[in-house]
Amino acid sequence: MPTSLPALPNSRTEADGSAVVRVLSYNIRSMRDDTAALARVITACAPDLVLLQEAPRFFRWRKKLTRLAAASGQVILSGGGTAAGPALLCSLRATMERTEDVLLPLTPGLHRRGFATAVVRFGKARVGLLSCHLSLQKDERYEQGGALLDRLAGLGAPHAIAGGDLNERPDGPTFRRVAKDLQDCWATSPWGGEHTSTPAEPRQRIDALFATPGIEVLGCGVPDGLPGVTRDDLRAATDHLPVLAALRIPAA
After folding, report:
1. pLDDT tens-digit map of 121-137
2. Backbone phi, then psi, for 13, in 5-degree steps?
3. Of the candidates 34, 29, 77, which has an alpha carbon nearest to the alpha carbon of residue 53?
4. By the 8 A CB rule, do 45 and 226 touch?
5. Which H or E run contains 142?
6. What is the Cα–Cα distance from 214 to 83, expressed in whole angstroms?
7. How far apart are CA 232 and CA 245, in angstroms?
8. CB-side neighbour CA atoms (13 Å) of 81
9. What is the DSSP letter of 190?
10. Could you give phi then psi for residue 20, rounded to 5 degrees?
11. CA 215, 52, 100, 20 torsion: positive or negative?
12. Structure confidence at residue 3 as a pLDDT band (50, 70, 90)
């Protein structure tokens, strides 16, 4: 992984009403690791939007998620236990229009999955959001990929961003199904590292950010080497590496 990175665009609002936003997708393994390191990584990425997977789901999950949000300069939008793990955080720059937690059909013997969704505004720029953690079982995962596209289209926003742990590499059928309709942000504008699993020896990309075609991808990748993001923190925070993107969302 790189030791230094070119600058990623900072958050801003353009003269034409479009908004540059920084979006982070991160599997945090139920905050079972070093939560101080996790908060430091999120803070250093300076995100406007955080798409979490494996957020706390059980005993006092809301309190745990609230503490993480506060420690990293964010507020909770949606998700957590009510979405079976995915969650959304945002900075105070975002204005929330609505949120919805979605539970997907349960396959007997498999883990319950869900989506955390929201529609937010940055000035005149309006965008739908979806965080997901897809199944380990390939057939169920493929169906969930289709549900992701349907749900994103149903948010009723002119632009949309999805992110999460797909449990599949880019050459897999579900990843390709999603990337056929949406921009795979790393493939569109690579920045930083590619592989997200595992932090100690990253060899595969199973976590990704996607955007609808009208969004301009200014850079996307693993922020190893970003000022304030240390390899020690990345290894201590959780068992995945985060994906950070800068995106320009047109004015509605």
Report:
1. 999 999 999 999 999 99
2. -110, 130
3. 29
4. yes
5. helix 138-153
6. 28
7. 21
8. 11
9. B
10. -90, 120
11. negative
12. low
Of 2, 24, 51, nearest to 227 by C-alpha is: 2
Structure tokens at 248: 């320009």
Single pTM value for the model: 0.97
Cα pseudo-dihedral 153, 102, 249, 194, rounded to 10? -100
Distance of CA 198 to the CA centre of its chain: 17
pLDDT tens for 80-131 read 999 999 999 999 999 999 999 999 999 999 999 999 999 999 999 999 999 9
107 φ/ψ angles, rounded to the nearest 5 degrees: -90, 125
- Residue 230, preceding bond cis, omega within 30 degrees? no
DSSP 68-79: HHHHTT-EEEEE
For 83, the 3-state DSSP assignment is helix
Which SS3 state, helix, strand or coil, does residue 202 take?
A: coil
